[in-house]
Amino acid sequence: MSFEFFLRLLGMVALAAAGWRLGENLAGGNINDSEVMRGILSLSLAGAALGLLLTPYLTTRPLEWIRRRVRQLPANIILGATAGLVLGLIVAALLTPPLSRLPGILGQVLPFAGALFFGYAGVQIMVLRERDLLSLLQARLSHARGQARRYVLLDTSVIIDGRIADIAQTGFVEGTMLVPRFVLGELQHIAGSKDPLRRNRGKRGLDILNQLQKDSTTPLEISDVDVPEIQEVDAKLVAIARDMQASVLTTDYNLNKVAELQGVKVLNINELANAVKTLLLPGEDFEVEIIQEGREAGQGVGYLEDGTMVVVESGQKLMGQKCRVEVTRILQTVAGRMIFAQVSRPANGRQP
Fold it and tell me: Which one of 44, 47, 203, 247 is least enclosed by Cβ atoms within 10 Å?
């Protein structure tokens, strides 16, 4: 027998007894009359039927709905609502003695109404302003300790990119890396995609997170912090970073621009990679292997060890060979740096 069916039986018995008592009270104790007895039995049967039908909707169903809602709410919202309720009830308790001394019905009703009002107001204030209050509290605590805890928010793109694992291992990232749970959810969604490419990218991102938790010298935290009123992941990250005064670590060019417009500090791994690439100036020469044809006729393309593309004029005929080239110009793009060069001489010393 299920628990819900057991509650239905209890509700049926309880409301049947309540219907019987109601019938007796309406009959005024005159239960010897057959008509009165039929009325009492009718009320008792109606109560039993109502108890059998309505008990789950008054007990298990509301509790199940509350349980689902609590599971969906972030922990910080639940904590804020609980703190607000406690504070509101404390205020109501302080006001109860003077309110209870009011004359007549006011002294009886206002203490209870005050408890309801201040409890509800405390919950609403803490839930609506929870992020601001937590930020203020964190700032006060950090100031009292003499040092602020720095957070760096990771977005989906930088986790999938994978280079963050090596960068974090070197200790260049200051503070604590923070991954909101909605970013983890997006990674899991990508990892479950039917598209093999997206699925592999998502699985790689989850592997990188696992590696960061195990091997990174920079601490990593998975947080329930969220902005429920904002649906888009990038917008959530920017709002959280602004409230926490944190940085955002990304490889997403659009997120980079949006965050900068809102005054959020952005750490872009692509910009870091460009900054540490080999610096070459026009007129300098170096050795490169031509591995493919260029877009224009006669061009050859090679790559430096850091991945920088080198476009060599008249290099197509040297496919598969190493040669010395001289830099003619450097083009900086959003995707990275491109070097244009002309053949100086092949690596074996023969002129092309």
Answer: 203
CATH number of 148-274: 3.40.50.1010
CATH of domain 278-346: 2.40.50.140
Write down the domain spans for the chain: 3-62, 76-128, 148-274, 278-346
Q: What pTM did the predictor assign?
A: 0.47
Amino acid letter, residue 228: P
- Look at residues 85, 111, 109, 87 and name the one whose alpha carbon lies nearest to residue 97: 111
Distance of CA 311 to the CA centre of its chain: 42
The amino acid that residue 262 corresponds to is: Q
Cβ–Cβ < 8 Å for 107, 101: yes
Q: Judge whether 308 and 339 are in contact, CB under 8 Å.
A: yes
Q: Within 13 Å and on the Cβ side, how many CA atoms surround 104? A: 2
Q: What is the pLDDT along the chain (352 residues), one digit of tens a residue?
A: 577 777 778 888 888 888 888 877 777 666 666 777 788 888 888 888 888 888 888 887 888 887 887 777 777 778 888 888 899 999 999 998 888 888 888 888 888 898 999 989 988 888 787 777 776 676 666 554 434 568 899 999 999 988 888 888 887 888 889 999 999 999 999 999 888 888 999 999 999 999 888 887 888 888 888 888 888 888 999 999 888 888 999 988 888 888 888 888 888 888 887 777 777 888 888 899 999 998 888 899 999 877 788 999 988 888 888 999 999 998 877 666 789 999 986 555 444 4
